[in-house]
Amino acid sequence: MWDKLKQAWQVKEVRNGLLFVFAMMVIFRVAANIPLPGIDLVALKRFFDANQVLGLLNLFSGGTIRNFSVVALGVAPYITASIIFQLLAMIIPRLEEIQKDGEQGQRRINQWSRWLTVPLAFIQSFSLLALLRQSQVPILTTTSALQITMIITAVTAGTLFLMWIGELISEKKVGNGISIIIFAGIVSSLPDHLTKFISTFDQSQYLTVAVYALVALATIAGVVFISEGQRNVPVQYARQSNGQSSAVGGVASSLPLRVNLTGVIPIIFAVSLLIFPSVIAQYLTRARSEWLVTAATWVLTTLQNQVIYGTLYFLLVVTFTYFYTSIVFHPDRIAENLQKQGGFIPGIRPGKPTSEYLTNVINRITLGGALFLGAIAVLPLVAQAFTGTTTLAVGGTSLLIVVSVVIESIKQIQSQLTMREYDVY
Predict the structure, then answer these.
(1) Which H helix or E strand runs over 185?
(2) How far is CA 28 from CA 63, 81, 215, 278, in A?
(3) Less Cβ around it within 10 Å: N or C end of the chain?
């Protein structure tokens, strides 16, 4: 491993790419610590500490909402826009055809995603300000329409700035830029968590620390195992004529089906669905109708119950894992391509039987990935329930993102090194 890192550092293009990513992360963290006026940051942090769902929203923004900086929303609107276009491709045939156009089609969809990011950033920043205004503790210290408009405009511009930085990072081919921004936000919060834990540490917590360390190591091992796990479906290509002799022998290959095709997208879906009733209920707690206030209070109280919240969270993650897998995995298209290329799965007829076989295989292996993602999502709740401490929590989702980003970056760097080895020979 260290030899590979040393070799990567010696390659000028890779070294320059890594230095560029580091410089962009410094710029991102500087922007993340420039607070906007009109916000009580102390009250805001307390508000997020008391709400588990908003804490997850802060995680996917890259840790920027908690400070309400000029990049408060992070890259969340861009992620939302990308997911929306993936969903629309399921119901709009024209979008599906564009997706099949390869790199050119993907470029068009990316451009539309950027355009959709602007109104989404406006809507999400306005909703966030409205939510802060409805909180029992005064967080928003300004009510001027001009100042509110300036805050929303600044936050939207910050999101577009981070989106631009993410695309610049991706061009360096040392990792996915958007994922690296979220990764930087997660890593930047570690010193605060460690400082908070050390300030409250006593000798009776040695066992707790050991348990958390073991759970963290087991989680990292599980993330690597699931992220790299795949089922290789054997594929045989038929004999082909070479024009001079009768035929050339068939070629045996395999079709890799990954255990986790979805990444952390199901967790984002689940968080969004859990946030929605909380936000609506927060609005209705000050309604004039008594039954609306009662219903809103019941919703908030129910979601604050760790058992109910954890159960709903787990079930939603498992459900959305299957749902999103059905979006990104197209067995009919794969079966059609295999048939066009003269390939077939031994023992399975080409065409529809191949598609049905692939569907059954992906449904079986997705079960393990779905249960793992669900377990990762509720891991902090389980750890806190058994240890009774919230000062040191193993964030399963955070570990999943961090490990996945590291694996993806290592793979891209290795592919660059491999390409240069071929160039040498």
Answers:
(1) helix 177-188
(2) 11, 21, 31, 30
(3) C
Q: Which residues, listed in sequence order, are joined to residue 391 by a DSSP beta bridge?
A: none
Q: How does DSSP assign 153-170, residue by residue? A: HHHHHHHHHHHHHHHHHH
For 58, 80, 128, 149, 174, the CA distances from 154, given in Å and listed in that order, are: 18, 19, 14, 9, 30
User: 3-state DSSP call for residue 388?
Assistant: coil
Tokens 């890594």 -> residue? 18
- Spell out a b/e string for 240-274, using b for 16 or more CB atoms within 10 Å of the CB, else e: eeeeeeeeeeeeeeebebbbbbbbbbbbbbbbbeb
Sheet holding 230-237, edge to edge: 251-258, 230-237, 343-344
R_g (Cα) of the chain, nearest Å: 24
Among 113-117, 223-227, 368-372, top mean pLDDT goes to: 113-117
Please check whether the domain covering 1-188 is classified as CATH 3.90.650.10: no
Q: What is the pTM of this model?
A: 0.77
DSSP state of 240: B
The whole-number average pLDDT for the span 288-301 is 82
Average pLDDT, the chain: 79
CA distances from 214 to 67, 295, 394, 405 (A): 31, 42, 10, 22
Most confident of the following: 123-127, 135-139, 141-145, 398-402: 123-127
Query: Tens digits of per-residue pLDDT, 156-170?
Result: 999 999 999 988 998
Model confidence pLDDT, tens digit, residues 18-72: 899 899 999 988 888 888 887 877 777 777 766 655 666 666 666 677 778 888 8
pLDDT at 157: 92
**In angstroms, rounded to a whole number, what is the distance separating the alpha carbons of residues 292 and 330?**
44
Strand spans (E) along 183-274: 230-237, 251-258
Residue-wise pLDDT for 335-387, tens only, equals 888 888 888 888 888 888 888 999 999 999 998 888 888 888 787 777 777 66
Distance of alpha carbon 317 from the chain centroid: 13
Domains of the chain, residue spans: 1-188, 200-394
Q: Are 89 and 95 in contact (CB under 8 A)?
A: yes
Domains 1-188 and 200-394 share a fold: yes
Q: Which CATH number fits domain 200-394: 3.90.1070.10, 1.10.3370.10, 3.40.50.300, 1.20.1330.10?
A: 1.10.3370.10
Alpha-carbon torsion, ordered 108, 110, 116, 118, to 10 deg: -120
Long-range contact pairs involving 248-257 (C-beta distance under 8 Å, separation at least 24): 253/343, 255/334, 255/338, 255/345, 255/358, 256/230, 256/231, 256/232, 257/230, 257/231, 257/232, 257/233, 257/358, 257/361, 257/362, 257/365
